[in-house]
Protein backbone atom coordinates (compact mmCIF):
# COMPACT_ATOMS: atom_id res chain seq x y z
CA UNK A 1 0.00 0.00 0.00
CA UNK A 2 1.38 3.40 -1.00
CA UNK A 3 1.19 6.34 1.37
CA UNK A 4 -0.66 9.11 -0.45
CA UNK A 5 -0.64 11.61 2.39
CA UNK A 6 1.32 14.77 1.86
CA UNK A 7 3.59 15.98 4.60
CA UNK A 8 2.26 18.84 6.70
CA UNK A 9 5.62 20.57 6.61
CA UNK A 10 7.55 21.84 3.62
CA UNK A 11 11.33 21.51 3.37
CA UNK A 12 13.11 24.17 5.44
CA UNK A 13 13.32 27.29 3.32
CA UNK A 14 14.86 30.74 3.55
CA UNK A 15 12.00 32.05 5.69
CA UNK A 16 12.53 29.24 8.20
CA UNK A 17 16.28 29.89 8.32
CA UNK A 18 16.01 33.65 8.73
CA UNK A 19 13.26 33.35 11.33
CA UNK A 20 15.41 30.90 13.28
CA UNK A 21 18.32 33.38 13.07
CA UNK A 22 16.11 36.10 14.56
CA UNK A 23 15.02 33.91 17.46
CA UNK A 24 18.56 32.68 18.19
CA UNK A 25 19.98 36.22 18.16
CA UNK A 26 17.24 37.52 20.45
CA UNK A 27 17.80 34.54 22.76
CA UNK A 28 21.54 35.34 22.93
CA UNK A 29 20.76 38.98 23.71
CA UNK A 30 18.43 37.82 26.48
CA UNK A 31 21.15 35.60 27.93
CA UNK A 32 23.44 38.63 28.27
CA UNK A 33 21.09 40.10 30.86
CA UNK A 34 20.98 36.84 32.77
CA UNK A 35 24.68 36.92 33.73
CA UNK A 36 26.81 39.39 35.63
CA UNK A 37 30.15 37.92 34.51
CA UNK A 38 31.76 40.63 32.36
CA UNK A 39 33.78 38.20 30.23
CA UNK A 40 30.75 36.01 29.54
CA UNK A 41 28.65 39.08 28.67
CA UNK A 42 31.33 40.26 26.24
CA UNK A 43 31.61 36.78 24.71
CA UNK A 44 27.83 36.54 24.23
CA UNK A 45 27.77 40.02 22.68
CA UNK A 46 30.57 39.11 20.26
CA UNK A 47 28.73 35.95 19.27
CA UNK A 48 25.42 37.71 18.64
CA UNK A 49 27.12 40.53 16.73
CA UNK A 50 28.85 38.03 14.43
CA UNK A 51 25.60 36.15 13.82
CA UNK A 52 23.54 39.27 13.11
CA UNK A 53 26.20 40.62 10.72
CA UNK A 54 26.30 37.31 8.83
CA UNK A 55 22.50 37.21 8.69
CA UNK A 56 22.25 40.79 7.43
CA UNK A 57 24.87 40.34 4.71
CA UNK A 58 23.23 37.13 3.46
CA UNK A 59 19.82 38.83 3.41
CA UNK A 60 21.20 41.74 1.41
CA UNK A 61 22.93 39.42 -1.05
CA UNK A 62 20.04 37.08 -1.84
CA UNK A 63 16.77 37.80 -0.07
CA UNK A 64 16.47 41.51 -0.73
CA UNK A 65 16.98 41.14 -4.50
CA UNK A 66 14.22 38.50 -4.49
CA UNK A 67 11.96 40.81 -2.50
CA UNK A 68 12.67 43.71 -4.86
CA UNK A 69 11.85 41.58 -7.89
CA UNK A 70 8.82 39.69 -6.63
CA UNK A 71 6.96 41.88 -4.12
CA UNK A 72 4.77 44.74 -5.31
CA UNK A 73 6.25 47.03 -2.64
CA UNK A 74 9.64 45.31 -2.77
CA UNK A 75 11.86 48.30 -3.51
CA UNK A 76 10.40 50.34 -0.66
CA UNK A 77 10.49 47.37 1.70
CA UNK A 78 14.13 46.67 0.92
CA UNK A 79 15.08 50.33 1.37
CA UNK A 80 13.37 50.30 4.78
CA UNK A 81 15.11 47.05 5.80
CA UNK A 82 18.52 48.34 4.70
CA UNK A 83 17.99 51.44 6.83
CA UNK A 84 17.22 49.17 9.78
CA UNK A 85 20.36 47.14 9.08
CA UNK A 86 22.43 50.33 9.07
CA UNK A 87 20.99 51.31 12.44
CA UNK A 88 21.78 47.88 13.85
CA UNK A 89 25.33 48.06 12.47
CA UNK A 90 25.96 51.37 14.23
CA UNK A 91 24.65 49.98 17.53
CA UNK A 92 26.78 46.84 17.12
CA UNK A 93 29.87 48.90 16.31
CA UNK A 94 29.33 50.90 19.51
CA UNK A 95 28.72 47.69 21.47
CA UNK A 96 31.98 46.21 20.18
CA UNK A 97 33.84 49.10 21.79
CA UNK A 98 32.67 48.63 25.38
CA UNK A 99 33.49 46.00 27.97
CA UNK A 100 30.94 43.73 29.57
CA UNK A 101 31.24 45.72 32.79
CA UNK A 102 30.96 49.17 31.17
CA UNK A 103 27.79 51.06 32.24
CA UNK A 104 26.95 51.71 28.55
CA UNK A 105 27.00 47.97 27.76
CA UNK A 106 23.48 47.27 29.04
CA UNK A 107 22.04 50.30 27.25
CA UNK A 108 23.60 49.16 23.96
CA UNK A 109 22.37 45.58 24.43
CA UNK A 110 18.87 46.96 25.07
CA UNK A 111 19.09 49.18 21.99
CA UNK A 112 20.26 46.25 19.87
CA UNK A 113 17.50 44.01 21.26
CA UNK A 114 14.83 46.62 20.55
CA UNK A 115 16.09 47.30 17.01
CA UNK A 116 16.42 43.62 16.18
CA UNK A 117 13.02 42.75 17.67
CA UNK A 118 11.39 45.50 15.56
CA UNK A 119 13.20 44.40 12.40
CA UNK A 120 12.37 40.72 12.96
CA UNK A 121 8.73 41.55 13.66
CA UNK A 122 8.40 43.48 10.38
CA UNK A 123 9.95 40.68 8.39
CA UNK A 124 8.17 37.79 10.07
CA UNK A 125 4.70 39.35 10.18
CA UNK A 126 4.62 41.11 6.82
CA UNK A 127 7.51 40.51 4.46
CA UNK A 128 8.19 36.79 4.83
CA UNK A 129 4.55 35.75 4.25
CA UNK A 130 4.53 37.88 1.08
CA UNK A 131 7.79 36.29 -0.06
CA UNK A 132 6.37 32.79 0.53
CA UNK A 133 3.27 33.72 -1.46
CA UNK A 134 5.33 35.11 -4.34
CA UNK A 135 7.93 32.34 -4.73
CA UNK A 136 7.59 28.60 -5.14
CA UNK A 137 8.98 26.20 -2.56
CA UNK A 138 11.94 25.15 -4.70
CA UNK A 139 13.06 28.76 -5.09
CA UNK A 140 12.66 29.43 -1.35
CA UNK A 141 14.70 26.32 -0.49
CA UNK A 142 17.33 27.38 -3.03
CA UNK A 143 17.50 30.81 -1.40
CA UNK A 144 18.03 29.12 1.97
CA UNK A 145 21.04 27.26 0.55
CA UNK A 146 22.49 30.49 -0.87
CA UNK A 147 21.95 32.29 2.44
CA UNK A 148 23.64 29.47 4.37
CA UNK A 149 26.66 29.59 2.04
CA UNK A 150 26.85 33.38 2.21
CA UNK A 151 26.80 33.32 6.02
CA UNK A 152 29.91 31.10 6.01
CA UNK A 153 31.86 33.72 4.02
CA UNK A 154 30.30 36.90 5.41
CA UNK A 155 32.03 39.37 7.70
CA UNK A 156 31.72 38.79 11.44
CA UNK A 157 32.04 42.41 12.51
CA UNK A 158 29.85 45.41 11.74
CA UNK A 159 31.07 47.74 9.01
CA UNK A 160 28.55 50.59 9.18
CA UNK A 161 30.37 52.70 6.60
CA UNK A 162 30.45 49.92 3.98
CA UNK A 163 27.69 49.95 1.38
CA UNK A 164 24.70 47.73 2.17
CA UNK A 165 24.48 46.52 -1.39
CA UNK A 166 24.22 43.11 -3.00
CA UNK A 167 27.12 43.75 -5.39
CA UNK A 168 29.43 45.02 -2.63
CA UNK A 169 28.67 41.99 -0.46
CA UNK A 170 29.20 39.54 -3.32
CA UNK A 171 32.49 41.11 -4.48
CA UNK A 172 34.08 42.40 -1.28
CA UNK A 173 32.21 40.50 1.43
CA UNK A 174 34.26 37.28 1.33
CA UNK A 175 37.49 39.29 1.61
CA UNK A 176 36.13 41.40 4.45
CA UNK A 177 34.86 38.21 6.11
CA UNK A 178 38.30 36.62 5.84
CA UNK A 179 39.94 39.65 7.44
CA UNK A 180 37.30 39.68 10.19
CA UNK A 181 37.79 36.00 10.96
CA UNK A 182 41.58 36.51 11.11
CA UNK A 183 41.07 39.45 13.49
CA UNK A 184 38.69 37.27 15.54
CA UNK A 185 41.30 34.52 15.85
CA UNK A 186 44.14 36.88 16.71
CA UNK A 187 42.10 38.70 19.36
CA UNK A 188 40.60 35.51 20.79
CA UNK A 189 37.12 36.83 20.01
CA UNK A 190 34.39 34.21 20.05
CA UNK A 191 32.10 34.31 17.01
CA UNK A 192 30.08 31.18 17.48
UniProtKB/TrEMBL annotation:
Superkingdom, natural source: Bacteria
Per UniProt, residues of the Hemerythrin-like domain are 14-131
User: Which Gene3D superfamilies is this protein grouped with?
Assistant: nmb1532 protein domain like (1.20.120.520)
InterPro entries linked to this entry = Hemerythrin-like (IPR012312)
Protein name, as recorded = Hemerythrin domain-containing protein
Which organism does this sequence originate in?
Pseudonocardia benzenivorans
Q: What is the lineage of its organism?
A: Bacteria, Bacillati, Actinomycetota, Actinomycetes, Pseudonocardiales
Amino acid sequence: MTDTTTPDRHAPDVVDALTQDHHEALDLLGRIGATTDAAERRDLADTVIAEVVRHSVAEEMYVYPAMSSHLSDGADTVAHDKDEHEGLERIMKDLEGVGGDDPRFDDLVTAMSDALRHHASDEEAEQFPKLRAALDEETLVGLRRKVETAKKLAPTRPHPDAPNAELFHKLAGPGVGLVDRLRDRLSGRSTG
